[in-house]
């Protein structure tokens, strides 16, 4: 990816708040993050241990828990670093690219997976006698792989389009993570698509 301005780092300004709230916000977000990761790990463990939960619905729920755990891990630790220290607000250009890629990859994969899960439930309700033959293990695996590949492709296109632009404005991102809309505000080029 070429970047005409050679931006080497961005500063994440984070959530607007007074500095006195840094410690309480750090504690609150840390607790939420830990419970999110532990909750998803517990779901994964229960589905893995209980053989009765080896159905298509739980197969997709396993994928969803895995995605949700990693989606939180892509965003929250950097936000916690920014709350813990002012120097934690800086993020290198390549780290920003990686964070944006994985944020959109996991987020779009999750959306595609919701669609697959709704189709699964529709088939289970509308065609209960044919459901097991239609939603075989192979079908579930192909649908899950399709969601992951679609999410990856969607994110790759976003990354290429976002970071191919020249950046000339101050490299302060008005957000707590590298996301496309705040980054596009820093671009010198016209991003409106006229």
Account of the protein in words:
The protein is mainly α and 194 residues long. It has a single domain (9-184), classed as Rhodopsin 7-helix transmembrane proteins (Rhopdopsin 7-helix transmembrane proteins), CATH 1.20.1070. Helix content is 65%, strand content 5%. Helix 3 (93-126) runs antiparallel to helix 5 (137-163). The protein is flat. The model has no long low-confidence stretch (mean pLDDT 90).
Main sheet characteristics: 3 strands, mixed
- Secondary structure category: mainly alpha
Rg calc: 20 Å
Number of beta strands: 3
Contiguous uncertain segments of 5+ residues: none
Q: Strand arrangement, largest sheet?
A: 2-1-3
CATH class: Mainly Alpha
- Estimate the helix proportion, in percent: 55-70%
CATH architecture: Up-down Bundle
Distance, first to last CA: 23 Å
Provide the residue-averaged pLDDT. Answer: 90
Order of helices and strands: EHHEHHHEH
* CATH superfamily annotation: Rhodopsin 7-helix transmembrane proteins
- Strand % is under 5%
How many individual helices? 6
Task: Name the overall outline.
Answer: flat
**What fold name goes in the CATH topology slot?**
Rhopdopsin 7-helix transmembrane proteins
Number of domains: 1
List keywords for this structure.
194 residues, mainly alpha, Rhopdopsin 7-helix transmembrane proteins, three-stranded mixed β-sheet
Question: Layout of helices and strands, plus pairs?
Answer:
Elements: E1 9-12, H1 22-49, H2 56-84, E2 90-92, H3 93-126, H4 131-134, H5 137-163, E3 172-173, H6 180-184
Parallel strand pairs: 1-3
Antiparallel strand pairs: 1-2
């Amino acid at each position: 990816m070429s970047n005409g301005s050679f931006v080497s780092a961005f500063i994440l300004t984070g959530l607007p708040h007074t500095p006195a709230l840094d410690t309480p916000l750090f504690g609150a977000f840390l607790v939420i993050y830990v419970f999110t990761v532990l909750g998803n790990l517990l779901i994964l463990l229960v589905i893995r241990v209980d053989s009765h939960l080896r159905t298509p619905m739980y197969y997709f729920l396993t994928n969803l828990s895995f995605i949700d755990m990693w989606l939180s891990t892509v965003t929250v630790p950097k936000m916690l670093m920014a709350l813990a220290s002012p120097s934690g607000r800086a993020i290198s250009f390549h780290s920003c690219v990686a964070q944006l890629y994985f944020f959109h990859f996991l987020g779009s994969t999750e959306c595609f997976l919701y669609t697959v899960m709704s189709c699964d439930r529709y088939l289970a309700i509308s065609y209960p006698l044919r459901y097991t033959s239609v939603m075989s293990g192979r079908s579930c695996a192909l649908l899950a792989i399709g969601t992951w590949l679609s999410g990856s492709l969607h994110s790759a296109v976003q990354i290429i389009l976002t970071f191919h632009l020249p950046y000339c404005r101050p490299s302060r991102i008005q957000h707590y993570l590298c996301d496309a809309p705040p980054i596009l505000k820093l671009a010198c080029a016209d991003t409106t698509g006229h």
